[in-house]
Design goal:
The complex is a heterodimer of chains A (about 240) and B (about 120). Chain A has 7 helices and 9 strands; from the N terminus they run H-H-H-E-H-H-E-E-E-E-E-E-H-H-E-E. Chain A is an alpha+beta fold and about 240 residues long. In chain A, strands 1, 2, 3, 7, 8 and 9 form a 6-stranded antiparallel beta sheet that branches. In chain A, strands 4-5-6 form a 3-stranded antiparallel beta sheet, with helices on one face. In chain A, strand 5 and strand 6 form a beta hairpin. Chain B has one domain. Chain B contains 4 helices and no strands. With about 120 residues, chain B is mainly α. The longest helix of chain B has about 35 residues. Classes of the chains: A alpha+beta (about 240), B mainly alpha (about 120). Chains A and B meet through helix 1 of A and helix 1, helix 2 and helix 3 of B.
Chain lengths: ~240, ~120
């Protein structure tokens, strides 16, 4: 009799163990499966490759700077340093920059004018979106209505006025200038902007955007204020 | 007794090694089924200790409880009411009661044994 009971118990315990283990397996399943298809993975790969080539070109640039130092340092180290400082000021947006680029004109849309609506405002969000769109697509030097966009630039609403670098921008129409390193980059940016949905977003706000064809010479104004270094710290040497 | 533990170990290892999985929608049912079977198991142990164990009651209770619990959960899902909570509550309460009874019986037996061994005359 006792034997029979225990054999029953073992069978039940076996089933319990099995169910518990299956439950454990199910709960511990990795919760996010990779469901990307081939094309998404290819896209990811191409992004990474682009990053790779960008990094490589940066390495090349730094190498050339280094060799320049080596060449010049024997004769005049001062000049080499000055050159570098000038270059860095250019990158930071403190100098005027003339390069290939395009000009965009933001103006009230014809429909809005026809209806007699008064357009005297561009939303900071829209402007930020546009600048992000430009930054993403090879636009290296940007100025909005004569205000250079630098790393610390804030585009925001101050007392109902949209400001760039705390300077209110004009009511539309005004110009946005964008310059890139090469004509190829400029053309890419131009084509991208023409096809991007950002123009529709402007249209919703009763604004139309006119994009000039790529020009050989676009002059971007320098950043006119003092750069704010308050939160910068000297990196510690390792 | 060792046979039962062997059964448990065998079940767990078989489940883990074969890596069987069920769709996550059914995980709820399985957890209730596990609870129901645990309840039946402890009920069986209690009955055995109280000398009222019956084979048919035990085995039928095992399957019936599981089916009832899963059915309740299924109904709950389709009615939008968390009926499986009822099953969890009922089984949980009974589980604790059964374990408490088992504990008392074992304690009583242990005390009795001690008493017997202390008075050998």
């Amino acid at each position: 009799m006792k034997r029979k009971i225990f054999s029953r118990f073992s069978i039940i315990l076996f089933v319990i163990g099995l169910m518990t283990a299956i439950q454990y397996n199910t709960i511990n399943e990795p919760d996010s499966r990779d469901t990307r298809d081939v094309w998404e993975i290819r896209q990811e790969l191409s992004r990474e490759k682009q990053l790779h080539s960008e990094l490589l070109s940066e390495v090349g640039l730094l190498d050339s700077t280094l060799s320049k130092y080596d060449e010049i340092s024997s004769e005049s180290p001062e000049q080499a340093l000055k050159d570098t400082v000038e270059e860095l000021r250019g990158l930071a947006g403190l100098t005027e920059m003339t390069a290939t680029g395009i000009e965009m004109t933001i103006e009230p849309s014809a429909e809005a004018v026809a209806f007699g609506e008064e357009i005297d405002y561009i939303a900071p969000d829209l402007l930020i979106r546009l600048v992000n769109e430009i930054n993403r697509n090879n636009g290296l030097y940007v100025s909005v209505d004569g205000n250079r966009i630098v790393n610390t630039t804030a585009i925001r609403d101050i007392n109902g006025l949209t400001t760039v670098n705390a300077i209110p921008i004009q009511t539309p129409p005004f110009k946005i200038k964008i310059a890139s390193n090469s004509m190829e980059d400029t053309e890419k940016l131009y084509n991208h902007l023409l096809s991007s949905r950002i123009l529709d977003d402007f249209y919703i706000d009763n604004l139309s955007v006119e994009i000039s064809a790529p020009k050989e010479q676009v002059t971007i104004e320098p950043y006119e204020k003092e750069l704010n270094y308050r939160h910068l710290k000297i990196a510690e040497e390792e | 007794m060792w046979l039962s533990i062997l059964g448990l170990i065998l079940g767990i290892s078989l489940g883990l090694l074969t890596d069987i999985q069920i769709p996550p929608e059914y995980a709820n049912y399985l957890s209730i089924a596990v609870l129901a079977s645990l309840d039946t198991l402890f009920g069986g142990i209690r009955a055995h200790l109280q000398q009222v164990y019956d084979d048919k009651v035990f085995v039928s209770g095992f399957f019936f409880n599981i089916i009832l619990a899963a059915g309740l959960a299924f109904l709950g899902v389709h009615l939008g009411v968390d009926l499986y909570l009822a099953a969890i509550f009922a089984f949980g309460v009974r589980l604790f009661q059964n374990i408490a009874v088992i504990r008392r019986i074992i304690l009583a037996k242990w005390a009795e044994k001690k008493h017997v061994s202390e008075t050998p005359s």
